[in-house]
From TrEMBL:
It comes from the Bacteria. Residues 183-244 form the ANTAR domain. Keywords: Kinase, Transcription, Transcription regulation, Transferase. Residues 1-29 are annotated as: Disordered. The keyword Acetylation does not apply. Pfam families: ANTAR (PF03861), GAF_2 (PF13185). This is GAF and ANTAR domain-containing protein. SMART domains: ANTAR (SM01012), GAF (SM00065).
Amino acid sequence: MATSEQPDDGRGAQGRPSDSYTGQGEGGELAQMLSDMARSLQDEKSIEDTLQGIAAAAVGMVPGAEHAGLTVVRGRREVTTRAASDDLVRRVDRVQYEAGQGPCLDAVYDKRTVRLSDMATEDRWPDFTRRALGLGVHSMLSFQLYVQHDDLGALNLYSAKADAFDDESENVGLLLASHAAIAMAGAQKEHDLSVAISARDLIGQAKGILMERHKITGDQAFHLLARTSQHANIKLAEIARYLVETGELTDIRDR
């Protein structure tokens, strides 16, 4: 029930249900489903595959969900749909980004669960709801997915039916979002480690080329790469990659 501190606007605080939530909903076989999902996501080979797996799991698990997508905000400014169950999700999200309003953006920035029951009667985001109706979407449910430094995320669910999402949808969605956030963090960490190892290997190869070519030490070769990186205003790993691929170092700024 809404209070004077928490208006009845269909939003819930981070990690908690929206104000439309009444406490109903059954667990059923949810724990097993989430366990299976977690194991499946661990087997994905890339962060993009992990995100697509989360979107697919949301459609399969959350009652009422016909479509699902993941929104990522880099530096709290650059908003993109990182994964989607289908093209409709990207079209609806594009409407939100262009209008600068919608349940997805509220979930991301306000750390809330947002349930939009009927686009036809909703008055919080008039520009967005009018255009979303034209795309055939009548209800949405959005959860903040993670916060990492200045990067934000949200899990968004869509349906062509009005009132498609209920308390059970929120129960399942909140739990799924928690598991998904852990999977995303693990996938991102593994991706970052892979990138770091690749960069280290490239720099090592580039140092070897310079050492052989100029008969210099490893430290001297590294400082030469670092100076070139600074003067060209290009990342050190990219300087190393260019040298390894082309054998050239001085003309990288002319590419």
